[in-house]
Amino acid sequence: MAILFDEEIIDGKKYLKICPSSEVFERVGKQVHFDGSDDIYQVAIFRIENKLYCTTNHCPHQNAAEIFNGVLKGLSVTCPLHGWTYNIDDGSNAEPKRGLKKLTTFEIFEKNNWVFIEYPNIPIPRWRSPSGS
Ligand code: FES
Predict the structure, then answer these.
(1) 62 lines ligand 1 (CB under 6 A)
(2) In terms of CB atoms within 10 Å, which of 17, 32, 61, 64 comes out highest?
C-alpha cells in the first residue's frame, strides 16, 4: 500500500496529514482514499458542531464505500443504500436487530489548520483477500 499523505510522528504515534481544515465542512462527509490501487484504504471524515470524526468508509452491510455519503442526524450516519445506521463517535451499529457489524473509528484532530488522523490500520476483509480465505 502506497500512502498518499505525509506522515508525522507525534508522541511516538504515526499520523497522516490529510487536508487543510477548511476542506472539511460542517455536516458534509468527506471521502479520503489512501491508495489509488485498492479502494479498501479509505475513510470517511465528518465535522459535527465543529468536532471531527473519522470512520472506515465501507458499510459493513454490503461493503459499499458510501459512509461518507450517508445521511447525518446528530452523531448518527445512515448508509444511503439500505439504511444501516452507525454512531460516528464509536462506530457502533445503532440498530443491532439489523446486524452487529460496526464501523472502525480513528483518532482525528486539527493542528495548525490541518486535519490529522491516526495511521489507519484497515484490515483486508475476507471478501477482498486474494485467496478469499
Ligand atoms: S451497504 Fe450500507 S446499508 Fe447496505
Answers:
(1) yes
(2) 32
Q: If one looks up domain 26-105 in CATH, what number appears?
A: 2.102.10.10
**How far away, in angstroms, is 4 Cα from ligand 1 center?**
27
Per-residue tens of pLDDT for the chain, all 133 residues: 677 899 999 999 999 999 999 999 999 999 999 876 667 789 999 999 999 999 999 999 998 999 999 999 999 999 999 999 999 999 999 988 877 899 999 999 999 999 999 998 887 777 666 655 5
65 Cβ below 6 A of ligand 1: no
SS3 53: strand
Pocket test for ligand 1, best of 61, 78, 85, 102 (most atoms within 8 A of CB): 61
What span, in angstroms and rounded, lies between the C-alpha atoms of 103 and 121? 13
pTM: 0.91
Sorted by where each begins, the domain ranges of the chain are 26-105
* DSSP H or E run through 101: none
